[in-house]
Amino acid sequence: MRIVLLGPPGAGKGTQAKAISKEIDVPHISTGDILRNEIKNGTELGKKAANFVESGKLVPDETIIEIIKSRIRSGELDRGFLMDGFPRNLKQAKMFSEMMEELNIKLDRVINIVVDENEVIRRLGNRRICSVCKSIFSIGDDGNNMKRCPKCGGLLLKRKDDSEDVIRHRLKVYESETKPLIDYYTDRGILVNVDGSGKEEEITGRILENT
Ligand code: AMP
């Protein structure tokens, strides 16, 4: 299966991609995770990307396309993939489509996770990531105030770009750059809208029904 997950920041793409990629046994490719890892390791790519990522701006398309091409070259995506955070604008989508044409492969499905904007803002403000296993949690729900990861005990951290002003900027970037992809993939007949509200497992079930 070759799947792209679409949706605003905070729609739950990362959480769902982890669950779905396990279920259908294809690699989960998160360009955001790849960039954060490069930044953490202080690589050349990380140094180039840091300012963009931390301020909620899109990293230049050429850099992102190079990341995807290197994954394709490595053979990692031969048995399918679940893209999370890529493509992020029309230019990336068109370049991605050309890459796939050259390889004689096609996208099977684009899942658009639909979540109300107020809910997205609430989720991003409450989001914490485990510094060790990278699991994603929401604090504040049910009055919980977790500091440690319930799965591995690692320290839970707030992403730098989950601060209020950067969240606002990321939502604007989503509206102007990423949202047009909904029409782009609808026109190609491969987009399915999935309700992203409710419990994690329910949303995973809805996505799996459509893959
Ligand atoms: P995410 O983890 O998907 O929310 O991405 C976090 C940040 O990484 C974004 O705000 C961008 O700065 C950068 N980023 C991730 N994916 C892309 C992409 N496909 N194109 C450009 N920038 C990206």
From the structure above, extract its key features:
211 residues, alpha/beta, Rossmann fold, three-stranded antiparallel beta sheet, 8 strands, globular, binds adenosine monophosphate
Helix and strand layout, with pairings?
Elements: E1 2-6, H1 13-24, E2 28-30, H2 31-40, H3 44-55, H4 61-73, E3 81-84, H5 90-102, E4 109-114, H6 117-126, E5 127-130, E6 136-138, E7 156-157, H7 164-178, H8 180-187, E8 191-195, H9 200-209
The structure holds adenosine monophosphate.
- CATH C-level name of the domain at 2-27 and 77-116 and 172-209: Alpha Beta
Within CATH, the superfamily of the domain at 2-27 and 77-116 and 172-209 carries the name: P-loop containing nucleotide triphosphate hydrolases
Give Rg in angstroms. 17 Å
At the fold tier of CATH, the topology name of the domain at 2-27 and 77-116 and 172-209 is Rossmann fold
Q: Mean pLDDT, rounded to whole units?
A: 95
**What summary fits the major beta sheet?**
5 strands, parallel
Cα-to-Cα separation, first versus last residue? 8 Å
Succession of helices and strands: EHEHHHEHEHEEEHHEH
Structural class: alpha/beta
Biggest sheet: strands side by side, in what order?
2-3-1-4-8
Helical percentage: 40-55%
* Strand runs, count: 8
What's the overall geometry? globular
CATH architecture of the domain at 2-27 and 77-116 and 172-209: 3-Layer(aba) Sandwich
Q: Which parts are unreliable, with pLDDT below 50 for 5 consecutive residues or more?
A: none
Measured by DSSP, the beta-strand proportion falls in 15-25%
